[in-house]
Specification:
The chain has seven helices and no strands. The protein is mainly α. It starts with 6 loop residues before the first helix and ends with a helix.
């Protein structure tokens, strides 16, 4: 029992120094971080701002993130056109082309599996394209304030379909 420090005490002191160093480094890193609180109503564009900042100030999206977002875009497209079709019956709006009624039935038949798998097969994309081109569907879309439809529905639906058809 001398006056020297034991091995355990030396190891504890070394661990303590390492913890202190890590805390200091984390503190310095946190001091350089900027946090931004985005407030706004639903569908006001908060997540869009975050996504744009990521594209501009970081390296954009990885291939895996693109695949994840693709499924979300497909799902939103399907849900938007389905909301319009459902609203047509509530608002008593007819299709300009009666063949679109068959397309609407096909849309509802194919939509569940496509959303579940995160894909938009060609046959479903063609159905959505034909429905979107119908004057009755367009008329219903212009009355979107009378039913629940995302603000981005029109732009997203058409851009998605055009991209799918061109690829």
């Amino acid at each position: 029992m001398g006056c020297t420090v034991s091995q355990e005490d030396k190891a504890a002191a070394e661990r303590s120094k390492m913890i202190d160093r890590n805390l200091r480094e984390d503190g310095e890193k946190a001091a350089k971080e900027v946090k931004l609180l985005l407030l706004g109503a639903g569908e006001s564009g908060k997540s869009t701002i975050v996504k744009q900042m990521k594209i501009i100030h970081e390296d954009g999206y990885s291939e895996e993130e693109c695949k994840q977002y693709r499924a979300v875009v497909y799902s939103n497209t399907i849900q938007s056109i389905m909301a319009i079709i459902k609203a047509m019956s509530n608002l008593k709006i007819e299709y300009e082309d009666s063949a679109r009624a068959d397309d609407a039935r096909q849309l509802f038949a194919l939509a569940g599996a496509a959303e579940e798998q995160g894909i938009l097969p060609d046959d479903l994309a063609n159905v959505v394209t034909r429905l979107w081109a119908d004057g009755g569907v367009q008329g219903c879309f212009t009355r979107a304030r009378e039913y629940q439809l995302n603000d981005s529905a029109a732009k997203m639906t058409m851009q998605t379909i055009e991209i799918i058809i061109s690829s």
